[in-house]
């Protein structure tokens, strides 16, 4: 993704959205943020994705994560589309949509943030916006980026799992192993000396014996 790398300060762009004009850093405040893009309004995969994101919005809120979507259509189109999304979710008519959608009808943000999918094009031959996910920390730095092609829908439960890991490892000197989920044991970072590990993790540290004799697989209950 050209221009934005992990650890970079995320651009403080201004944009029109379904809740009015925003400045991105002001919108985030001191919260975490997740920005996810969509190829177009009134399209099938995007509708299922935003429907699932809306269903899980309370889960993101519990983690102090502000959600915001982006699609290359107008605010007016977004507002009409959200009615379809809520109907897809079998919500009552008039039920408010739980997070804003950025209008990027000129594709300026999609270009700036490296969101275009060169292999998928609309009926006019214009590249579609890919399905990007950016997670931004309270320090406004990018903590995670995932780039899906326009043809593949995302797993928002996996995104919640990743955010749980990011928030845990931001505070504790641990890493989360393969398929980790909250409550599972975690791994002590290799740069934590053995004597220090005992003090940091009073619940105990278990070291897996390996043929190499190297003591790098160290587990501890989730702090």
From TrEMBL:
<comment type="similarity">
    <text>Belongs to the peroxiredoxin family. Prx6 subfamily.</text>
</comment>
<feature type="active site" description="Cysteine sulfenic acid (-SOH) intermediate; for peroxidase activity">
    <location>
        <position position="46"/>
    </location>
</feature>
<keyword id="KW-0049">Antioxidant</keyword>
<protein>
    <recommendedName>
        <fullName>Peroxiredoxin-6</fullName>
        <ecNumber>1.11.1.27</ecNumber>
        <ecNumber>2.3.1.23</ecNumber>
        <ecNumber>3.1.1.4</ecNumber>
    </recommendedName>
</protein>
<dbReference type="GO" id="GO:0051920">
    <property type="term" value="F:peroxiredoxin activity"/>
</dbReference>
<dbReference type="InterPro" id="IPR013766">
    <property type="entry name" value="Thioredoxin_domain"/>
</dbReference>
<keyword id="KW-0676">Redox-active center</keyword>
<dbReference type="GO" id="GO:0005739">
    <property type="term" value="C:mitochondrion"/>
</dbReference>
<dbReference type="Pfam" id="PF00578">
    <property type="entry name" value="AhpC-TSA"/>
</dbReference>
<dbReference type="GO" id="GO:0005829">
    <property type="term" value="C:cytosol"/>
</dbReference>
<dbReference type="InterPro" id="IPR000866">
    <property type="entry name" value="AhpC/TSA"/>
</dbReference>
<feature type="domain" description="Thioredoxin">
    <location>
        <begin position="4"/>
        <end position="168"/>
    </location>
</feature>
<dbReference type="GO" id="GO:0004623">
    <property type="term" value="F:phospholipase A2 activity"/>
</dbReference>
<comment type="function">
    <text>Thiol-specific peroxidase that catalyzes the reduction of hydrogen peroxide and organic hydroperoxides to water and alcohols, respectively.</text>
</comment>
<keyword id="KW-0560">Oxidoreductase</keyword>
<dbReference type="InterPro" id="IPR036249">
    <property type="entry name" value="Thioredoxin-like_sf"/>
</dbReference>
<dbReference type="GO" id="GO:0045454">
    <property type="term" value="P:cell redox homeostasis"/>
</dbReference>
<dbReference type="InterPro" id="IPR045020">
    <property type="entry name" value="PRX_1cys"/>
</dbReference>
<keyword id="KW-0575">Peroxidase</keyword>
<dbReference type="InterPro" id="IPR024706">
    <property type="entry name" value="Peroxiredoxin_AhpC-typ"/>
</dbReference>
<keyword id="KW-0511">Multifunctional enzyme</keyword>
<dbReference type="Pfam" id="PF10417">
    <property type="entry name" value="1-cysPrx_C"/>
</dbReference>
<dbReference type="InterPro" id="IPR019479">
    <property type="entry name" value="Peroxiredoxin_C"/>
</dbReference>
<dbReference type="GO" id="GO:0047184">
    <property type="term" value="F:1-acylglycerophosphocholine O-acyltransferase activity"/>
</dbReference>
